[in-house]
């Protein structure tokens, strides 16, 4: 990475509250604000580039973008191709159904349809539980490019459940005033960390980046940014 020439941050511009376009077409969100603070302190020029989330690692490693920063979950599969920053927030992959659904557990999805975002940590979580995935109708989840489409499928009754990031789900339902229409199952696919993804060759820059991230967490700037977007989210 040549930080003197500026860096390009790749993100999914529908992934609220981490990075998305508001009604005025501006890039906003928790990760947007965090990027502004960290890269500002590093005195690095930067821009945000919406990307096809299913192509994010390819976009990074071909040099079209320099960072993946948008509620990006650390997974073993991704660690093989991406250098991660230190994590900064924990998340869970949860299962959401309609409030009146008879589904109470993972076992109840046998022979039924479930949806998630393509090439997401949610998809990886489902497929890592082979018995669960194989029991689904079609032996795999239905996938869509964005979580907006995933929620739409549940709303329209085309699937009976969805697997999504808990932080995204709770924000989405609160903002839309529809939390009482859905139910999050007690069973989930476990906890995970969010971090920023870089190319494997960017070790020097990532070291600088991690130092400023730690500084922002230590001086409570991180907490101030977090409180503008959601509450009760713990940093690492």
From TrEMBL:
This is Amino acid ABC transporter substrate-binding protein. Gene3D superfamilies: Periplasmic binding protein-like II. SMART domains: PBPb (SM00062). The keyword Signal applies. Residues 6-233 form the Solute-binding protein family 3/N-terminal domain. It comes from Ruoffia tabacinasalis. Keywords: Signal. SUPFAM superfamilies: Periplasmic binding protein-like II (SSF53850). Signal peptide: none annotated. It comes from the Bacteria. Pfam families: SBP_bac_3 (PF00497). The keyword Metal-binding does not apply.
């Amino acid at each position: 990475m040549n930080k003197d020439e500026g860096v390009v941050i790749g993100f999914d511009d529908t992934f609220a509250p981490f990075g998305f376009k508001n009604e005025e077409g501006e890039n906003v969100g928790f990760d947007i604000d965090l990027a502004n603070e960290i890269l500002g302190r590093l005195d690095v020029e930067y821009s945000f580039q919406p990307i096809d989330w299913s192509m994010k690692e390819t976009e990074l490693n071909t040099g079209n973008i320099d960072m993946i920063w948008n509620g990006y979950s650390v997974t073993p599969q991704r660690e093989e191709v991406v250098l991660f920053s230190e994590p900064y927030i924990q998340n869970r992959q949860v299962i959401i159904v309609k409030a009146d659904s008879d589904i109470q557990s993972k076992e109840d999805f046998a022979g039924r349809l479930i949806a998630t975002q393509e090439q997401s940590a949610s998809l990886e979580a489902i497929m890592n539980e082979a018995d669960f995935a194989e029991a689904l109708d079609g032996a795999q989840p239905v996938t869509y490019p964005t979580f907006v489409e995933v929620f739409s499928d549940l709303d329209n009754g085309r699937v009976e459940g969805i697997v999504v990031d808990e932080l995204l789900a709770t924000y989405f339902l609160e903002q839309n005033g529809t939390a009482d229409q859905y139910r999050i199952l007690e069973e989930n696919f476990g906890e995970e960390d969010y971090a920023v993804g870089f190319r494997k060759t960017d070790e020097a820059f990532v070291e600088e980046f991690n130092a400023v991230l730690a500084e922002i967490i230590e001086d409570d700037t991180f907490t101030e940014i977090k409180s503008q977007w959601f509450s009760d989210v713990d940093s690492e």
